[in-house]
Amino acid sequence: MKMPLPSNRPEATTTSGPVAGKYKNKGRISSFAGIPYAAPPVGKLRWAPPQPPASWTSVRTCAKPGPTAYQRRQAIDQFMNNIVTGLGISAVRGRSLLAAVKLVRPNEGEDCLSLNVRTPTGASNLPVMVWIHGGDHTDGAGSEPFYDSNTLSERGCVLVTINYRLGLMGFLAHPELSAESADGVSGNYGLMDQIAALEWVRDNAAAFGGDPGNVTIFGESAGGAAVMNLLTSPAARGLFHKAILQSPSDSGRWLALDTPSVGLRPAVEAGEDFARSLVGGGEGQIDRLRAMEPEDLYEAYREDLESARHFFPCIDGYLLPEAPMSAFSNGRTAPVPLMIGYNSDEGSLLWSFMHPAGAEFGMREPGEVSPAEAREAFEHSYGSKEAVDALFAAYPGLEALDPAALSEHAGDHMFGVHVDHISRCHSASGHPTYRYHWRALPASPDQTIGAFHAAEVMYVFDTALPLVPPAADAHLLVREMGDRWFAFAATGEPNSPGRVDWPTYDPDEPVHMVFNRPVSAVEPCPAQTGLDLMRERVLRLSNREVAVQR
Asked: Which residues are catalytic?
């Protein structure tokens, strides 16, 4: 006989006060949403480290997500248009899908530091999975429909999805902000938010049936980059015990607080220029920016493309003592089991609005950069004509800016080289590492975008794009990925009964799990000249990186 639920809504007691959520799946899942993990970052707390939320005594209803962080929205519309165009669906379905996406535009606000929890009702001591959303550190939220799923919690984990400050609000660096800081740094407020959310998980997981000693952080794209940063940051040590990086991106990969890097100015210099354009020069720029309405700030931010590409996580010598890629090279990352991979057609949605030589050179429309200008940027990035000649040979057509070559190069440059470098280095440091490659195509025979960026997210969470018919065998891969993600979070190994054994990555005999329909399989990692050249570039840039000594 089914036992009655203890009340008409689930309740839990956090360190700030009691909360009430709602039941899902006929009471099997207890869902809480919009729980504050930090105080609203407004007024003097705009561009300041997150502070503890005010406590409460009466039961607080936390049944719907809180506001999302303010969104930049520069590339999201183009990204979605490229998906709709490339999925091979009818024009009518495509227009309806775009209309549906616009209808779910988020409620934005500065009071965005909240998180959402789903947990099996009545459970205890379960593994905890903390999801960090994608969106280039400028867009997205933990409450997006693609993550609105019980599938991982139904397997037996506590799932936490978080919001954090994005773009301008999350990553503005400025000399006055550095002067306010006891550590003499500024700019990484979004990263501080992520760490504060993990501290909340440490202190509150048990109240929701979770084990604070078994926490897995996972994320995709900018979320994967966030996991990279957390693996690098000494301030995050001990707050998690496993990590999954899905298509970790290169958002601000070489951006530094006080020094220039490839294609980028110092973050504080860009921040000061942005402030000057809005409130003039002289002292007190930050006070004047804090007095502005957020909508006015964001209107300027969306128009100032040059400054905006510097509002990303930066190497500050404190939270990020060095670039994440350098930390992996030097074996100075968190010593935890790691799962990492990327998709075979990552660049198909992105190449059309990024600079041919990489996002560190800004965003460009097709035709805005000539082959000669692109070559100049490549040589600045790779350091020699000979290296660029070898790169162009590895990607036939890249020199002439052929779309297919641009797409392939963009995917490897933004994602593939991170997966290759991190898996090699983390494994060589003696830590269990599992590598994958996603190759499942959209169902329509008319599709043109391949195994596109972020496609695997819907398989991990068992969600779907509205109005897009799934493949007949998609459910098989959905089940497999859910099983493997959960198994890794529970045990540190992505293996479960009935599944093909997934061996750890060995740099000397590298293999990866190829996720595909109808069958996934372990295969040798193919030799890729392009990735080798990019990895050499990463090592060169790491070696010449100007360390920030504090």
From this structure: 221, 346, 453
Alpha-carbon distance 1 to 13, whole Å?
Answer: 29
pLDDT digits (tens, 9 = 90+) for 167-217: 999 999 999 999 999 999 999 999 999 999 999 999 999 999 999 999 999
pLDDT in tens, 212-231: 999 999 999 999 999 999 99
Instruction: Say how far apart CA 159 and CA 157 lie, in whole Å.
Output: 6
| Residue-wise pLDDT tens digits, 241-268 | 999 999 999 765 779 999 998 878 999 9
CA 359 to chain centre: 16
Q: Where are the domains of the chain?
A: 11-357+359-364+392-544
Cα–Cα distance measured from residue 223 to residue 219, given in angstroms and rounded to the nearest whole number: 4
For residues 215 and 83, is the Cβ–Cβ distance under 8 A?
Answer: no
Of 254, 281, 278, 283, which is closest to residue 266 (Cα–Cα)? 254
Rounded Cα–Cα distance for residues 502 and 521 (Å): 9
Cβ atoms of 128 and 168 within 8 Å: the answer is: no
Q: What is the DSSP string of 333-398?
A: S----EEEEEETBGGGGTGGGS-TT-GGG----TTSS-HHHHHHHHHHHHSSHHHHHHHHHHSTTT
Residue 104 is predicted with a pLDDT of 67
- Going by C-alpha positions, the residue among 382, 374, 376 that lies closest to residue 356 is 374
* CATH code for the structural domain at 11-357+359-364+392-544: 3.40.50.1820
Q: What is the pLDDT of residues 495-550, one digit of tens each?
A: 999 999 999 999 999 999 999 999 999 999 999 999 999 999 988 877 655 443 33
Contact 13, 60 (CB under 8 A): no
Vertex 188: Cα angle to 186 and 194 (nearest 5): 145
**Rounded Cα distance, 422 and 246, in Å:** 12
Question: Is the pTM value of this prediction over 0.85?
Answer: yes
Strand partners, 438: 343, 515
Peptide bond just before 518 cis, omega within 30 deg:
yes
Other Cβ atoms within 10 Å of 537 Cβ, number: 18
Q: What angle do CA 102, 107, 108 make, to 5 degrees?
A: 115
Which of 11-20, 212-221, 411-420, 461-470 shows the lowest mean pLDDT across its residues? 461-470
* Integer Cα distance of 433 and 506 in angstroms: 8
**24 bridge partner residues:** 29
Q: Which residues is 308 bridged to in the sheet?
A: none
